[in-house]
Automatic annotation (TrEMBL), chain A:
UniProt protein name: ABC transporter permease
The UniProt record lists the keyword Transmembrane: yes
Record-linked PANTHER family: DIPEPTIDE TRANSPORT SYSTEM PERMEASE PROTEIN DPPB-RELATED, DIPEPTIDE-TRANSPORT INTEGRAL MEMBRANE PROTEIN ABC TRANSPORTER DPPB-RELATED
Organism: Antiquaquibacter soli
Transmembrane segments: 12-30, 94-120, 132-157, 169-190, 234-255, 275-297
Chief place of localization: membrane
Keywords, alphabetical: Cell membrane, Membrane, Transmembrane, Transmembrane helix, Transport
Membrane topology: Multi-pass membrane protein
UniProtKB/TrEMBL annotation, chain B:
GO molecular function: ATP binding
Name listed for the protein in its UniProt record: ABC transporter ATP-binding protein
Family: Belongs to the ABC transporter superfamily.
Origin: domain of life: Bacteria
Location, primary (coarse class): membrane
CDD domains assigned to the protein according to its UniProt record, in alphabetical order: ABC_NikE_OppD_transporters
Keyword terms of this UniProt record: ATP-binding, Cell membrane, Membrane, Nucleotide-binding, Transport
Membrane topology: Peripheral membrane protein
Origin species: Antiquaquibacter soli
Pfam families: ABC_tran, oligo_HPY
Length: 308, 543
């Protein structure tokens, strides 16, 4: 097991350097001059441009810039954007919003997704199962901005049950609608995975053994089947948390939540290279950590993996 | 006379799938007395397992049950899941065929045992349950039971898992134990041990056992009475001794005649050792894994297969016998030594040499359902090697396919069928036809009849023998079944844990084994004769 984790960490390091370099290089190659973008319509002196370029090391070769940036990262410095605001502070300000949103959406995926999957499996081929199937297919088929805007219109504007936009109302009221909209897709996947997994497991020999032991149906399903069936769904859920923490650009936009997604979108639009790279780097770290989490969760659920 | 413990009276079971109903069990009646071992015998599809499942209401939802099942005075048929729980595990316990699959893979065996213990005696505290679980493991002779509690099913062998299953079944000291093919998935020496465990439990706890099996040797070993089923109907009920000596029903006689036995065939004439078709010299196969280190699957094994000769490669699961076979067709990594097929060394063979080699070697695998392409018709399957390798086309191809199918006893009518439309025996015939299509010099047969019922096996072996004498190919016959090997092979190589422990003429190896392990292997094969089997058991236990 220690060997496995060691191997994973090594992979993480390689992935970390590879991905951050690619993103850095891509932002570096973006068309348009950031100094000109900063200046906007105003005329700007050549000498000022030169000073600014020097200050931001824009004339150094790509590799030098990259390593200087990495050096800063290891001391916790994400650099500053072209307006002089520290990127680290911006990320720290936006992240809690995204974190709350992501965890809320995740909780909905777990509870509703696993629940629907279990119910569909236990009631398979009945109208309940079919209703769940149709609903989840719809949920994956409709684009997220359609669902987002419609939900906003119905719950926010027409019925006025929930806030239309913004995070002024705080958790949970302000987050219910956006979290539910984000969760819809993952929830559909989780419930499909869970359904087929539970059906597979119900047909396993060990379920017959558990019944032959005289266990109640509640215990057979709730203990024996559930843990085995949860394994594929948990894999998806853990990976999905990584996506969710990356912020939902569209949904944060629709509901005007000042999260990572919004920040990233704004930064790309205004050619704020340092901000884009900073956010991407932070996201990669989150992703890498969740991928290790998947492995550990797997091992915790399935002893066959633990002893491999 | 005492009252029967279990009375099954006029039991019928129908399965309804997609609107069509088929009858699995037809008005079957049988009784099990307290402390008695009753064997329910039949081939696959005879309804024996369905009958056993019906007792505890474990049939799938597609089944409809009619008739009566009584446990002493309690009518079981018609009870729902909740009502049956007072019987399941408490008064009637069950042991299944595939012990590793029957245990939950994600919980430790301690957890699963203690769960069974709590089910029977909810008043016990945690320490009490643990103590009882250890005691139960001790009863089924698991070494060091205390430390085994934390093990997971995948860390135990099949035999140990089956012991755990039996321990679990005994948690409540049930009146009746239903054992559904309890030793079918196990090696023959392990089978002998498990049967011993069952016998001792019966003697000590006087638990009645309803033993479901297709193996007449197992019946002879354990059963007091035998019920023979065929196509859902009971054709004979008899005491074990009577059944083997004076079988009443024609079907029982057929069944007994089909059982292969050791030591009924005279040795063949000596063979020409020159120019072997297959030469395995000092073969070593290592499997390297990053986590487990190197595992030596085959450890310096040498033997030869001469022209027209059938050599058996015998051993238990994990002995490396299949790996040796795979080396000969280039499917396993050879770490050391040589494998020569028709004089060409598999290691370092050129592409052209490999092509020649593939032409001279045919292969038949164990599971005919999995080794036939499900989207190919029988004709496509058998014609593929002819058209791809020899370039035979058109009418000639068709005629040769018909000829091949006829040689394995299938008429040309079967050509357009798909694998799933064939029975297990027919599929294996198709596999054999495909394997001999190129008239190979060497045929490698890896457990070709292990998945088949005994009467089907007998017919497939007949086909095999006829083909071998007419085509004259040499054969490496990989098997765990000594009786089959005895009926077919000229020489026997015995493998244990990757090593070749014995290699010689069939008769010598089976009647005068030089190696301890071979002796144990031969002694463990149950013979279909209760009197002789009891005698052999005594001898085995004494030694």
């Amino acid at each position: 097991m220690a060997k496995v984790i060691g191997g994973r960490v090594l992979e993480l390091v390689i992935v970390f350097f590879g991905v951050t370099f690619v993103i850095y290089a891509m932002v570096f190659a973006l068309p348009g001059d950031p100094i000109r973008a900063l200046a906007g319509e105003r005329p700007i002196a050549e000498s000022t441009i030169a000073t600014l370029r020097a200050a931001y090391h824009l004339d150094d070769p790509l590799l030098v810039q990259y390593f200087r940036y990495l050096g800063g990262l290891f001391t916790g410095d994400f650099g500053t954007d072209f307006s002089g605001r520290p990127v680290g502070a911006q990320i720290l300000r936006a992240w809690p919003v995204t974190l709350v949103l992501a965890l809320s959406a995740w909780a909905i995926e777990i509870v509703v997704g696993l629940g629907l999957g279990l119910v569909a499996a236990l009631k398979r081929n009945t109208w309940i199962d079919r209703t769940i199937l149709v609903t989840t297919i719809l949920a994956t088929a409709i684009p997220v901005f359609v669902v987002g805007v419609s939900a906003q219109l119905l719950f926010g504007v027409r019925w006025g049950i929930l806030p239309v936009a913004g995070d002024k109302a705080g958790w949970p009221v302000a987050f219910i609608l956006p979290a539910a909209v984000i969760a819809l897709y993952g929830l559909a996947v989780v419930s499909r995975l869970m359904r087929s997994s539970v059906i597979d497991n119900l047909g396993m020999d060990y379920v017959r053994t558990a019944r032959a032991k005289g266990l109640s149906r509640r215990r057979v399903v709730g203990v024996h089947v559930l843990r085995n069936s949860a394994i594929p769904a948990v894999t998806f859920l853990a990976t999905d948390l990584g996506y969710l923490l990356g912020g939902a650009v569209v949904v944060e936009g629709i509901f005007n939540l000042p999260g990572i997604g919004n920040l990233l979108f704004g930064a790309i639009r205004s050619h704020e290279g340092p901000t884009v790279v900073g956010i991407s780097t932070a996201l990669i770290l989150v992703f890498l950590v969740t991928s290790v989490l998947v492995d550990l969760l797997h091992a915790a659920l399935d002893p066959r993996i633990r002893h491999d | 006379m005492t009252d029967p413990l279990l009375t099954i009276d006029g039991l019928s079971i129908d399965f309804t799938v997609d609107g069509s109903t088929s009858r699995a069990v037809d008005r079957a009646s049988l009784e099990v007395m307290p402390g008695e071992v009753v064997a329910l015998v039949g081939e696959s599809g005879s309804g024996k397992s369905a009958t056993a499942m019906a007792v505890l209401g474990l049939l799938p939802r597609t089944a409809t049950v009619a008739g009566s099942i009584r446990l002493r005075d309690l009518e079981l048929s018609g009870l729902d899941d909740e009502q049956l729980r007072s019987v399941r595990g408490r008064r009637v316990a069950m042991v299944f065929q595939d012990p590793q699959g029957a245990l939950n893979p994600v919980f430790s065996i301690g957890f699963q045992l203690m769960e069974a213990v709590r089910q029977q005696d909810p008043s016990l505290d945690r320490a009490g349950r643990r103590a009882r679980a250890i005691e139960l493991l001790g009863q089924v002779e698991i070494p060091d039971p205390e430390s085994r509690l934390g093990y997971y099913p995948h860390q135990l062998s099949g035999g140990q898992c089956q012991r755990v299953m039996i321990a679990m079944a005994l948690a409540s000291e049930p009146e009746l134990l239903i054992a559904d093919e309890p030793t079918t998935a196990l090696d023959v020496t392990v089978q002998a041990e498990i049967l011993e465990v069952l016998r001792r439990l019966r003697d000590r706890l006087s638990t009645a056992i309803l033993l479901i099996t297709h193996d007449m040797g197992v019946v002879a070993d354990l059963a007091d009475r035998v019920v023979v089923m065929r196509r859902g109907e009971i054709v004979e009920t008899n005491t074990a001794v009577e059944l083997f000596e004076r079988p009443q029903a024609d079907y029982t006689r057929e069944l007994l005649a089909a059982v292969p036995r050791i030591g009924l065939r005279p040795s063949p004439t000596a063979l020409d050792p020159a120019a072997p078709v297959l030469e395995v010299a000092d073969l070593v196969v290592d499997y390297r894994s990053r986590l487990r280190g190197t595992f030596r699957a085959v450890d310096h094994v040498s033997f030869t297969v001469g022209p027209h000769e059938i050599v058996a490669l015998v051993g238990e699961s994990g002995s490396g016998k299949t790996t040796v076979g795979r080396c000969a067709i280039g499917l396993a990594p050879i770490s050391g030594g040589h494998v020569r097929v028709g004089g060409i060394d598999v290691v370092g063979a050129s592409v052209a040499e490999r092509r020649t080699m593939h032409r001279t070697v045919g292969v038949v695998f164990q599971n005919p359902a999995a080794s036939l392409n499900p989207r190919y018709t029988v004709e496509q399957t058998v014609s593929e090697p002819l058209s791809v390798i020899l370039g035979v086309r058109g009418r000639e191809l068709r005629e040769r396919v018909v000829g091949l199918l006829e040689s394995v006893g299938l008429s040309g009518d079967w050509m357009s069928r798909y694998a799933h439309e064939l029975s297990g025996g027919q599929r294996q015939r198709v596999s054999i036809a495909r394997a001999v299509a190129l008239e190979p010099k060497l045929l490698i047969a890896d457990e070709p009849t292990s998945a088949l019922d005994v009467s089907v096996q007998a017919r497939v072996l007949d086909v095999f023998r006829e083909l071998q004498s007419s085509l004259g190919f040499a054969c490496l016959f990989i098997s765990h079944d000594l009786a089959v090997v005895d009926s077919l092979c000229d020489r026997i190589a015995v493998m244990q844990r990757g090593r070749l422990v014995e290699y010689g003429d069939r008769e010598d190896v089976l009647t005068r084994p030089g190696d301890d392990y071979t002796r144990r292997l031969v002694a463990s094969v149950p013979v279909p004769d209760p009197v002789l089997q009891a005698q052999r058991r005594q001898e085995r236990l004494a030694s």
